[in-house]
Structures are given as structure tokens and as C-alpha cells.
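Morning - GBH inputs below, output right after.
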Amino acid sequence: MKANIQVLLLVTLLAGVWGKNPFLKHKTPQYKFPAGFPFGAATASYQVEGGWKEDGKGVNIWDTLTHDRPYLVENQDNGDVACDSYHKYKEDVQLLKDLGADFYRFSISWARVLPEGHDNIVNQAGIDYYNNLINELLANGIEPMVTMYHWDLPQALQDLGGWPNMQLAKYFEAYARILFTHFGDRVKLWITFNEPLTFVSGYASEKGFAPAINTPGIGDYLAAHTVIHAHARVYHLYDQVFRSRQRGKVGIALNINWCEPLTNSTEDIAACERYQQFNLGIYAHPIFSTEGDYPAVVKERISRNSAAQGYTTSRLPTFSPEEVEYIRGTSDFFGLNFYTAYYGKEGEEGNIPSLGRDSGLITRQDSNWISSASTWLKVVPWGFRKEFNWIKNEYNNPQVFVTENGFSDLGELNDTGRVYFYTTYLTEMLKAIHEDGCNVIGYAAWSLMDNFEWNRGYAEKFGLYHVDFNDPTRPRTPKESAKVIAEIIKTRKIPERFWQD
Ligand code: GBH
């Protein structure tokens, strides 16, 4: 009897050590980040640079929106000065260094480099600014990851119609050629576009993102079509002219929310599948799928709705077979911006016509999910893992580089909400890597520092570093989350005090 108890105790102890004892409270298995897995932080030109009319920079559509229609932005804020990174880039690099970041994802302001959008006038001061930033990063052992377009279209190109005008694909290629030529010797990670889904919505409402034009279900689809062409052109340009010498990678950053079926009915499951196809597949399918082109369900539904609404042609443009071939496979990695999730059920909502209406579902968030300072951003860590798996299954397990992930609050230094967000989302990402075999190859936190949050102005803060926007010198201060992220980068794991049961 006594021996039996001893054996039982021994077994219990050993099982406890192995983490399998059901009687002991144990925690989710803790995984490490693979050796060499790059960690970084992200920003975007209009959100941080300021210097809106300095040294020959041209006007862009966000300058125009914030100056001409200030009522579209919370508190009538604008990015004229923002974080003043145009002058403070050396300090920004030190923030990254203090984090232990492997790379910095920033974007180039098209109008700072090409004030009129076209390549006939190159602004040398703009080239100098980005050369200085890139050189400062490299001198500090931080790799630059450069987004070519994070929403600040030169106004001169908007005057020609903006992204719905197919000619912009050609102008974007000319701009990209300037960037590869001037920076490609040192920049090895390129992102053509940040979140086309989000910025083409600037052609779907007069109230939101620049240029804030109200042509939903038409202008946004035309813009998407141009952007996909423009992306492919830049990829081919890199292949044909630069890749053999520069040996970098060219990708695109796509944003998506997870959609969890409200019930397990076939209708709701299909509704959430359509959500993925209409919001992610519309860009990812032409580029990352084996067959190319827009997803079948997207083509069918827009064509059917267009006909029912009296249009004699589909509101969604078509790719020719040659174009499908030209676009297919034009990305070296899948950039993923991920923040939150929705419940989805079959149904109709949204403007007639609109992408939302065409997709045929109703989305809602759960009032029990933890909130942030942004109405749309609820904390749903498990959605992150599910999204990685959806991408893995849909596109044959591509290399996924997380190009954004982050949380908003009101700017507090003891940012416990953000710490909870990062530690839980990163835990789910580790499960996707280690348990599900998802091919995740890098991670950027959004954002390095508090910045101009588009139509929300400075009311919602995403930074690991606090920025004091009332002080003309825009001092930066590390938040608690900056310290935790630094610890994670250093130890390659989630600190035990944050492990969840
Ligand atoms: C990213 O977008 C952007 O790339 C980045 O610049 C931005 O600062 C960051 O996220 C934080 O927002 O106002 O209710 O209509 C994330 C995807 C898509 C989220 C558009 C907000 C608008 C919601 N975004 N969405 S609403």
C-alpha cells in the first residue's frame, strides 16, 4: 500500500515535470521563436514623418483631405508635424535599437521623392532623407523593410482620377524603379502596397480614407484592379532588372479579420468563407493561388448582383487569361496585417451596391470580447491562429510575414491592455507555427510609436513608445509594452508571468 502511494507520487511528479499531469494545474505548452526569426516594428510615412511641405515634398491626398476637409478627422488633427520623424529619424532608430528589433518597417512618401507623382522630377532632398534613414538603420544593425505605398498618393495623380485610373499602374512602376535604383543596394525587403482593401475604400465613401470619394461597389473595385496590376508590374520589373544584382524579396501586405461562423450551419460557414474571399481573396487569389484570377465566388456574385441592379457589365473588371498568368505568383512572401475578428452569418447589409452587399453576410463583434480604444478592434487572439491556418490551406502554406499586429489605447505608459494583446496574440502565433505547421517567417508590431491614426487623428494610440504631441520636440517614452517586447525579442519566448492557463 505504502509502496503504491510512493509509485503514484513518483508518477505524478514525473508527469508533472513532463507537463501532462491532469491533477496539476498546467499551462499551455510554451514554444520558442525559431532561431533567426525576425522581430521588428512598423510605421508609415504620413503617420509619423511630418515635414509635409519641407524641402520640395509634393502634396499628397492625406495633406489634401486633412487641410480641405478637416471635419473628416477627429479633433481636426493632421499629419503636418506628426511625430516629426522627418527630423527625428536618428532617435527613432535608437528606439528600435533599445527594443532589440531586427528590422524596421517604414514607408516611403511617394510625393517626397516624386513631388508630382511622375518620374520626370526627382526631389533629391527626399532621396537624401531615405538614404539617411536606411544608412542609420544599417549602422545600428537594423534591417530596413520598405513599403512603397502606405496610402499617401501624390495629389497630382489623384487629379488624374487616382487608383481607378489604370494608367496609375504604369506610374507606380516608374516610381518603384526610382526606389529600386536609389535604395535597392541596401533594401532587401520590399512591400509594394499596404492594405489595398483599406485604401481602395477611399473610393467607396466620402467620409473615410483619402481621397474620400463616394463610389462604393464601383470605384473601389476599379482601384483594386489597378493596384493588382501595379503590384505585378513592380514584381516583374524587379525580376527583369534588379533581382539578379540586388537579391531582395518583393511582397505585398494584405489585411484581414478572422470571420467565425455565428452558428455551424452550412450557410454561416459559407458566409464566413465568402468574407475571406471578398476581403482577402480579392487580392490574394490573383497573386498567391495556383489558378490565379479573382476568386470564383467573387466574380459570380458581383456579376449576378450587377445584372440584377441593371448594369449590363459586371462592376468588377475582368482579367484576360494573359493577365491572369502575368499576375499569378508575383510575390516572394505573404505580408499579413492582422488585428481582430468578427462573427459572420448569412444576410444582407451595406450600401447597394458595395463590396459588403456583394459579399452577402452580416458581421458583428461579441460584446464579451476585450475592447481597445478603436471601435473595430476587439482582442481575439485565437482568430490570429485560425487566420494563419486559413491562409495555409488556401494558398499552399506560403511564407507569411506578419507586417502589422497591434492594439490601441489612450496612450498610457503602463499599457497593460497592449501587453495582454501582444503576449496572447504571439502565443497563438507560436501555436500556429509549432502545432499547425504554418510557415510564419517574421513579425512586425504596429506601431513603433504613437502616431497619426488616419481619421481618428491622435485620439487612438498604437505605439510601443509614447509620443507627446503637445510638446514641439515630440519626446518619445517607452511604455511597459516596449519593455515586454524587448524581453520577448531577447529571450525568444513569452515570459512565464504572462502564460495563460
Ligand atoms: C492598419 O489598418 C494600417 O495599416 C495602419 O496604418 C493603421 O495605423 C493601423 O492599422 C491601426 O488602425 O473606422 O470602423 O470604419 C488596419 C485595418 C481597416 C482597421 C479599416 C480599421 C476601419 C474601421 N483597418 N478599419 S472603421
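Note: Confidence is low (pLDDT under 50) at residues 5-26.

O.
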